[in-house]
Amino acid sequence: MFSLLAFPVLAQTSQPGQSTQPTTARVVHQINWQTGFLEITVEQPIEEQRSNAPARLFRTQQEIEQAFPRILFESVLPLRIDSVKTVEDAVRTTPAISSRLTELSTFTERGLPRPDQQLTSLSQQFRVPIFPNLAELFVSHQIPFRMERVVRWVPTENFSGLVIYAAGAMPHRGTGESTLLEAALLPEIYDTTLRPVLEQDMLDPEALRRWGVVAYSEDFDEDRWRHRIGPNPYRIMAREVFGLLPTDILISPEDADRLLSSSHNRNMLREGRILVIVAPGQTIDR
Fold it and tell me: The whole model's pTM is what?
């Protein structure tokens, strides 16, 4: 079920004149967009030649902790930032991001280490919050960019949030194919004429750090998101997906008009009070 990465992790410190033989940790990781965490489990073999069980467990836990910044770095690389790049792409173009990614281990939630019954391996779970510490690495603006205004009269009302239904396969603009929407850190919203409704630099930077552009959910229970979308959200259908990576949402021009013609609704968008309903399995990246 999970994508697997193998990492060499140093075993017990060698004595002078001895070589150190690395053991291999087994790592499983997934990005859970619904909870907002990168979840990592590390399983490290326990060397049998160590006679004292508590000391063996302690040293193995140290090995996991020492290796974790590198494991975290490798695990976060596939995360989609937007419709054109992943974290790995960002690292290639801006190498300075690498050190900041490994620093995320400071903000990681650590579970209790658990040995197996035979004391042959020790596993530990880690949860890395996507917001705010990871998200802020890719927030470059300080002041939100101006959103387009619809100056003609449009029948609308002041909405507390926006709910976009995008749970089925949709046309992927420019490809002639249909696909499911994929979750990303900084998705954007356009109408079907490609008029910008919400681009990443239009969002309040504090909202981006707090909870990102949108929340993703696989069910229709809005109550768990009430703190974000409020009691009176505007509910619409996504029409198409857009981008090299299909993370951007196209909505109808009529829906875009109802949102952009109201200063209240523009501010609602700017605050990221958006919930996107996606297909089962689309909130988990393995």
Answer: 0.86
* pLDDT of the residue at 51: 62
Amino acid found at 22? P
| Residue 2 and residue 78 in contact, taking contact as beta carbons nearer than 8 Å | no
Number of domains in the chain: 2
Whole-number Cα distances in Å, 2 to 29, 30, 39, 111, 134:
7, 7, 11, 19, 22
For the chain, the straight-line distance linking the first and the last C-alpha, in angstroms and rounded, comes to 8
Q: Smallest Cα–Cα separation from 57: which of 9, 120, 129?
A: 120
pLDDT in tens, 156-175: 999 999 999 999 999 999 99
Domain that holds residue 109: 3-137
The reply to whether 10 and 101 lie within a common domain is yes
If residue 65 lies in a helix (H) or strand (E), which one and from where to where? helix 53-76
Q: Which two tokens stand for residue 86?
A: 């992943």
DSSP, res 86: B
Same domain, 171 and 131: no
pLDDT tens, residue by residue, 8-53: 443 333 333 333 334 688 999 999 999 999 999 999 998 876 567 8
Angle between helices 263-270 and 253-260 (to 10 degrees): 100
Q: Give yes or no: residues 133 and 175 share one domain.
A: no
Residues 165 and 270 occupy one common structural domain: yes
Shared domain check, 154 and 101 = no
Rounded Cα distance between 112 and 84, Å, is 37
- Which of the listed residues 72, 104, 137 is the one where a domain comes to its end? 137
Same domain (yes/no): 170, 251: yes
75-94 average pLDDT score: 95
Quick check: helix, strand or coil at residue 43? strand
**Are residue 193 and residue 233 in the same domain, yes or no?**
yes
55 has pLDDT over 90 = no
Q: Which residues does 18 contact at the CB level (< 8 Å), separation at least 6?
A: none
